[in-house]
Amino acid sequence: MQRVRILGVPLDPVTQDEAVARISQMLSDGGKHHVMTPNNEMIVKAQSVPVFKSLLQTSELSLPDSTGLLWAAARTGQHLPERVTGVDTVKRILLTCSDQTPVFFLGGRKGVGQRALEAMQKENPRLRGEAFEGTPSEEDAAEIINKINDSEAILLLVAYGAPKQDLWINQHLLNLTSVKVAMGIGGTFDFLSGSIKRAPQCMQRARLEWLWRLIQQPSRIGRIYTAVIRFPLLVLRG
Q: What is the C-alpha to C-alpha distance for residues 136 and 89, in angstroms, rounded to an integer?
């Protein structure tokens, strides 16, 4: 399947169902896999952070996690079938996990990772997992690696924000003895825990989820400006 490229960043033209199927396969194939969920803001960030752009270019699976990417693909004569959100993908995977697929929630401020895990365990009582906030600092890496290895987690979800979460995964995945799939998942724990409500479907369909986030979190205005203004300008300039 030929990848779509936006501002030098490859994206996989998969549907939500196909993304879940591919990650499920990764969890059982014996390898180690890094799944990324690029959005407008991450692609803008990559233009000024070469190491992050390089990582995005080598990611095994990159899910188009914003409607702006669908627009950018069409604008450049390419096609992405649909938006594949990190939160929907993660939730669907977690709902299928059994006690034979332990998970580890890393990151999330003020206990939101633990609350997200508990919320998912209510929906899927078979889900076995642990949560730890930690930090992306190298000083904390040894402790975090030990905790993950002791947990025997097969799926690792890292919520340190981009690019820190994916750079952390790239640096340490080979040291995580049981992990088969690691994903950088941004604010997914906030949504899974209920700390932040997702935009109504009507706003999502109208591509106004950014406005919903701005109303809920005015402090995100800089990030939203990057996603809604800077990103399309970069695409238009080619």
A: 23
